[in-house]
Amino acid sequence: MSETLAGVADIATAFGSATGISRDLRPDDSLTKDLGIDSIASIEMMGLLESRFGVNLIDNPRIVGTETVLQLVDLINDLQTGRVA
């Protein structure tokens, strides 16, 4: 079975769905400072990403230290490939 790994475009899609704002994202964009994601949008975005990639983000303790788009991509991919629980 081939896994679909997350990329910046996937985060942009979830960001757009959660906030109603469509924009290009950079890997080094801060989720809170650059994108202005508040707690409600964050939960909605994480839920969308959980559904899309079959991973648990909201209850994962590593999500607390996730500050950038690239860190979120890496976390999703690590969870998918079993590199982190």
From TrEMBL:
What's a Pfam family in this record? PP-binding
Q: Which Gene3D superfamilies match?
A: ACP-like (1.10.1200.10)
Q: Where is the Carrier domain?
A: 2-80
Q: Which domain of life is it from?
A: Bacteria
Entry protein name: Acyl carrier protein
What is the native source organism of this protein?
Antrihabitans stalagmiti
